[in-house]
């Protein structure tokens, strides 16, 4: 991991087209501005991790209980 | 393509039915090719990896179980999936079985979006949403433990 220090108002460039700027620092909260091309997805890591974990948990391993199909049919919400 | 699967036995998937998830899905980033399998006379659908036969996810149509579910596709996703018409889109959510089938949940934060016309898919992660990753599918059935 590359570690470097930046002051408020200073930026980093990642490649030629991603800019990360420190907008404000207040106690242990840092406000960051990101300018990136549209195809670059920026997500809070916790959110990404929660989806990842949920996916790993959802991986279909056990035999599916027969009851599931039935429950799904019976619980379709009416418009 | 012939696929040996523990659940379905041997299944044949036409190459033109294969859906490409260019970036994989979180947790399975290296697997990019899937098929959408619908069980005969069932409501169950699966997203089956064609690269890893033991990997599949149960999918549900979220609009059937959460009538007011809605989200907006970002320009980025529209571009990535080469969406030309809304009618080409298939929207599903991944179902998770936990502590008994009645407590099954679906992930409304990260729907599976497929452009059927181009056979491109993506698990979209919604950033501004009030929905949860563990939305109960059968709220009336939940067993209290």
Polypeptide structure, described:
The complex is a heterodimer of chains A (79) and B (145). Helix content of chain A is 29%, strand content 25%. Chain A has 2 helices and 3 strands, in the order βββαα. The longest helix of chain A has 14 residues. Chain A starts with 10 loop residues before the first strand and ends in a 5-residue tail after the last helix. With 145 residues, chain B is mostly beta strands. In chain B, the strands form 2 sheets. In chain B, strands 3, 4, 5, 6, 7, 8, 9, 10 and 11 form a 9-stranded antiparallel sheet that branches. In chain B, a hairpin with a 4-residue loop joins β9 and β10. Classes of the chains: A alpha+beta (79), B mainly beta (145). Chains A and B meet through α1 and α2 of A and β6, α2 and β7 of B.
The tally of structural domains of chain A comes to 2
Helix content of chain B: under 10%
Q: Tell me about the biggest sheet of chain A?
A: 3 strands, antiparallel
Tally of separate helices of chain B: 2
Q: What share of residues are in beta strands of chain B?
A: 25-35%
Largest interface: A-B, 32 and 43 residues
Q: Main β-sheet of chain B, in a few words?
A: 9 strands, antiparallel
Radius of gyration of chain A: 22 Å
Oligomer: heterodimer
Could you give the topology of this structure?
The complex is a heterodimer of chains A (79) and B (145).
Chain A: E1 11-14, E2 18-26, E3 29-35, H1 45-58, H2 66-74
Antiparallel strand pairs in A: 1-2, 2-3
Chain B: E1 2-5, E2 9-12, E3 19-20, E4 33-38, E5 45-49, E6 56-60, H1 62-65, H2 75-80, E7 89-96, E8 105-106, E9 112-115, E10 120-123, E11 135-136
Antiparallel strand pairs in B: 1-2, 3-4, 4-5, 5-6, 6-7, 7-8, 7-9, 8-11, 9-10
Please outline what is shown here.
Chain A contains two helices and three strands, in the order E-E-E-H-H. Chain A has 79 residues and is an alpha+beta fold.
Question: What descriptors fit this protein?
Answer:
heterodimer; A: 79 residues; alpha+beta; 3-stranded antiparallel β-sheet; 3 strands; 29% helix; 25% strand; B: mainly beta; 9-stranded antiparallel β-sheet; two-stranded antiparallel ribbon
